[in-house]
Amino acid sequence: MSLEIKVPAVGESITEVTVSQWLKKDGDTVEMDEVICELESDKATFELAAEAAGVLHTKANEGDTIEIGSVICEIDTSAAPAVESKKEAAKTEETSVDSPPSSTGKVLEMNVPTVGESITEVTISNWMKNDGDVVTLDEPIAEIESDKATFELAAEADGKLTIVAKEGETLEIGALICTIEVMKGVSQSAPESKPTDTPQPETPTGSAGYAAGHASPAASKILSEKGVDPSTVAATGRDGRITKEDAVKAEKKSESTGSPQDSTPVVVPGNRDQRREKMSSLRKTISRRLVSVKNETAMLTTFNEVNMQPIMDVRKKYKESFKEKYEVGLGFMSFFTKACCMALQEWPSVNAQLDGEEIIYSNFCDISIAVSAPKGLVVPVVRNAEAMSFEQIEKDIVRLATKARDGKLSIEEMQGGTFTITNGGVFGSMLSTPIINAPQSAILGMHNIVERPTAENGQVVIRPVMYVALSYDHRIIDGRESVSFLVRLKQLLEDPTRLLLGV
Asked: Is residue 196 part of a domain?
């Protein structure tokens, strides 16, 4: 009997997903609740688990985009008993082999250990032992990489290794990485190491061991690209291993140049290396979404400038007392969020979105705040921002930004949103034309604050000025509405008292 596995509903506004990676291949045997593939929506990446044990038959290829509710694969559940019997037969055959080690019947699960306060996931860079190998206690069995360092995973018991996570797979801290069938007599029966061509001196405890001078896979790749000999690199890793950081710091020794009389062309020293990286699933999704918005909307951008002096004066006067009372800083984002909410309620089409041949108007303001996270751009949502105080807005933005940078945002925290604010000014941007965050109809772009000469009452004065840009969908928003929205925003920001009085 074949069980159809369909794409589950993953969010209210998500209608399709992309198959980013099959973790199991067509024809593989899978267990119930075992993760078989990774699916990706325009909001996040998530895993699909097998709903029964059996043989997997895939119906979609990696990179295919399929609708919610479509069949993605089938599992032949009738094959499960046969598979189990084969496994049992194999186990019986293995135990019947005449070998000194004997099984104790216990299976030890090894999980990804905690390797640092801010590290939430690691990647299996290299298995030093094969599936089914007999390992001894404290013997290194795999190399694991985090975004900070490479380290070794040691066996936690004597026994037979069963690999669960494949090379290149990224796992969260605490996830199952392998199991060890605990055995007796492994240490005594372990084969002696093969003699090398040159005698190796004994290594005293605490000094470099067998790994001395050996580069981790990531380090080896970097050294190869740089053309650096591993034997010239100062190793700081465990047992004298060359880590990724060692490879990054390493420099190729300059070669001696020819004599002045040499007729060969002058070669100017410089690094001309190149490297290729596979595009991440999140980056591919962002690219596809942005191109789709450019192609499917009548996007236009209008600009204005804001004298930031009044807001800067308010912040200078009250930021210390504000932080002392509310335990959060008084930033520019709360002023812009409050001003946008007031302007959106006066010009509701800027807060609307198109759905087929209908326009949806919202009487609330769910403001999406663009945040640059390590894995790419994410846009968490501040709900009902129109009803929030400055303190509530600041705290919610800090909470969402922290979760975004730690990679802990949930799908629900990124869904919805009626209007988006993006601040390129934090990176030094003077002017830009932001792309609409579909299905919204408009996005506000903030930029850096620069002192510029401005005319006030017939006099030229220097003021801190920010250029603001509003990109909007001309199918919903007319020019009068977009310009009026931006003018109202300028009016509110240049006189912050209006934000408090609501005028």
From this structure: no
